[in-house]
């Protein structure tokens, strides 16, 4: 059985070129050392680049066989002789820049089928307007009055509903559906995304639950990336909005009327209930859950597996369930541990 490689480097780079490219400094090693591949620090070998960003992997730097390593200045002396060491302020970001240069195909997503243009098996309504350079793969459906900008790829079996607008250089993954939505430029929707379906709205009562019509839209601004199988409900009486540059992981639920600010990060399995507002640069850890009608201030951070039921002021870090400021959470946790140890007659290790 063959062992296919899906991404191939388009060039090689020397240590000197990389240092200049990432704005770093060549601290040691031959500036002409050349790489055309990347690998984790413990697995890297000749011809490969690695990086050190997380201190827990620092011991592996002493044994690495990589040709080039990007790291912070404090780790530079740990590298074995013969490894070209590039010191950078943000090693992880610097390594990402190098990977983009080596493997540009992995940065700009292409269709799953590989064709360009409109495949004969795709269904494109005659009233849809597609700019030159749009790719529509087999089985995809483009509804009436849709508008799609040049360079956008609509992958196999995706569905774009009536009246949807999608900007330029975007990507709609296999099996995704986009309904009642306006989508900006350079937006990536990974496979299985569900954008613009009904929000969960019912007027509850003893005689049954009356469905509340969801008459809003989803607005996704430029440079947003949304992970596989994430769902974003359209608004009930106003728009659900995802702000410019925000990155949303796989399997996230965003309820109706939610407003997410610019450059937020929302990690896998988080859930945001209806009408909650996140200001710019908010970060939610995995499995964070937010109740409805909350306000999360600019730059606030919520730890993974936290349950948020109160507004969070700008810049604060909260954790726990129910979530609270991290210092308060840690203080209460230490107190409970001491009380439990005292009740059992054990000595607390804290």
CATH superfamily of the largest domain: Hexapeptide repeat proteins
Q: Give the strand content.
A: 25-35%
Count, helices? 4
Share of helix, binned: 10-25%
Low-confidence stretches: none
Structure summary, number of beta strands: 39
Question: Which structural class is indicated by helix and strand composition?
Answer: alpha/beta
Domain unit count = 2
Q: Regarding CATH, which class of the largest domain?
A: Mainly Beta
Distance between the termini: 56 Å
Q: Please state the CA-atom Rg, rounded to the nearest Å.
A: 25 Å
* Overall pLDDT level: 95
Shape: flat
Question: How is this structure best described in words?
Answer:
Helices cover 12% and strands 26% of the residues. It has 350 residues and is of the alpha/beta class. An 11-stranded mixed β-sheet has the order 10-13-16-19-24-27-30-33-36-38-39. A 10-stranded parallel β-sheet has the order 8-11-14-17-20-25-28-31-34-37, with no helix packed on it. A 9-stranded parallel β-sheet has the order 9-12-15-18-23-26-29-32-35, with no helix packed on it. A hairpin with a 2-residue loop joins strand 38 and strand 39 (323-325). The longest helix is centred in the C-terminal third of the chain and has 19 residues, at 326-344. It is flat. This is UDP-3-O-acylglucosamine N-acyltransferase. It catalyses: a UDP-3-O-[(3R)-3-hydroxyacyl]-alpha-D-glucosamine + a (3R)-hydroxyacyl-[ACP] = a UDP-2-N,3-O-bis[(3R)-3-hydroxyacyl]-alpha-D-glucosamine + holo-[ACP] + H(+).
């Amino acid at each position: 059985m063959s062992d296919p490689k899906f991404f191939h480097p388009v060039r090689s780079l020397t240590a000197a070129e990389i240092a200049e490219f990432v704005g770093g400094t060549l601290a040691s090693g031959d500036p002409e050392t050349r790489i055309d591949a990347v690998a984790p620090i413990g697995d890297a070998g000749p011809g490969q680049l690695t990086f050190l960003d997380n201190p827990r992997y620092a011991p592996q730097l002493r044994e690495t066989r990589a040709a080039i390593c990007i790291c912070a200045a404090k780790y530079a002396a740990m590298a074995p002789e013969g490894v070209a060491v590039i010191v950078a302020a943000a090693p992880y970001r610097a390594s990402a820049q190098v990977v983009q240069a080596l493997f540009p195909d992995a940065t700009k997503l292409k269709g799953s089928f590989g064709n360009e243009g409109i495949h004969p098996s795709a269904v494109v309504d005659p009233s849809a307007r597609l700019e030159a350079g749009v790719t529509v793969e087999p089985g995809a459906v483009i509804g009436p009055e849709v508008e799609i900008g040049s360079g956008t790829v609509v992958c196999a079996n995706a569905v774009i509903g009536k009246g949807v607008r999608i900007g330029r250089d975007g990507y709609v993954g296999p099996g995704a559906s986009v309904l009642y939505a306006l989508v900006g430029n350079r937006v990536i929707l990974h496979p299985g995304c569900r954008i613009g379906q009904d929000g969960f709205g019912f007027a509850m009562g003893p005689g049954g639950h009356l469905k509340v019509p969801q008459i809003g839209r989803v607005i996704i601004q430029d440079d947003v990336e949304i992970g596989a199988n994430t769902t974003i409900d359209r608004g009930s009486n106003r728009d659900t909005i995802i702000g410019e540059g925000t990155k949303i992981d796989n399997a996230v639920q965003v309820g109706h009327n939610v407003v997410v600010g610019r450059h937020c990060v929302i990690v896998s399995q988080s859930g945001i209930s209806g009408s909650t507002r996140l200001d710019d640069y908010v970060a939610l850890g995995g499995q964070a859950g937010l109740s409805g009608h909350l306000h999360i201030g600019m730059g606030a951070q919520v730890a993974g597996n936290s349950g948020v039921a109160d507004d969070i002021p700008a810049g604060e870090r909260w954790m726990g369930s129910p979530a609270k400021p991290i210092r308060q959470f840690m203080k209460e946790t230490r107190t409970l541990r001491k009380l439990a140890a005292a009740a059992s007659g054990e000595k607390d290790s804290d």
